[in-house]
Amino acid sequence: MPLRSATPADYATIRAIYGQYMETPITFEYTLPSEEAFSRRLEAIQSFYPCLVAEEGGCMTGYAYAHCPWERQAYQWNAELSVYVDKEACHKGVGSQLYAAMLKLLALQGVRVALGCVTVPNAASEALHHRFGFREVARFEQAGFKNNAWHDVVWFSLPLVRSETAPEELVPVDRLRKSHPELGFWS
Fold first, then answer.
1. Structural domain containing residue 15
2. What letter would DSSP give residue 164?
3. Considering just the CA atoms, what is the radius of gyration of the chain in Å?
4. Is the pLDDT of residue 182 over 90?
5. Contact 120, 154 (CB under 8 A)
6. pLDDT in tens, 18-33
7. For residue 100, what are the contacts with CB-CB under 8 A and spacing of at least 6?
8. Is residue 187 part of a domain?
């Protein structure tokens, strides 16, 4: 299944896949952002982090992106991953392929810790994180209210680099694209 970097031409399809989850507690947003707001969100993400799409037979089957979950500078070596798979393509390995590629790219960027934030129960997402060696590091009970119910949230963590030394500066995705063209993700 080919993976590639998302382009602005993909944003409407990415938004449509995300929209499939709007009625679920998988996302805590109540309403689907407008096309303009969603495009701005993806542009902001891609100004520094990767956003990959998976395709099969010319159709997008899922996407994944990363971002820094907290605003203080000392947190910059952490990245939260998100993956959404078209409901027609679930349980076909799309999420795993996207996660594997994202983890590789984040390591090349210099990210030290990959994080996942999962509304539980969510067997598929929990299994995905465990498969890649993430471990549960925090559970926030009744963290969000959606669909007329309270939902717990679990944070998963995967160290990509273990070191006590000072970290190098993170590599923006554009610079990564230039230094690693062999990866083949670049649109």
1. 3-181
2. S
3. 16
4. no
5. yes
6. 999 999 999 999 999 9
7. 132
8. no
**Res. 187 pLDDT band, cuts 50 70 90:** low
Instruction: Count how many domains the chain has.
Output: 1
Predicted confidence band of residue 74 (pLDDT cuts 50, 70, 90): very high
- pTM recorded for the entire structure: 0.94
Positive or negative: CA dihedral 10, 125, 98, 162: positive
Residue 73 to residues 42, 79, 103, 163, 177, Cα–Cα distance (Å): 21, 12, 21, 19, 24
In a domain, 127, yes or no: yes
Beta strands in the chain (DSSP E): 3-5, 51-56, 59-67, 78-85, 113-120, 135-146, 149-159
Phi-psi region for residue 57, left (φ > 0), alpha (ψ -120 to 50) or beta? left
Structure tokens at 98: 């996207």
Residue 177 has pLDDT above 90, yes or no: no
Looking up residue 167, the CATH number of its domain turns out to be: 3.40.630.30
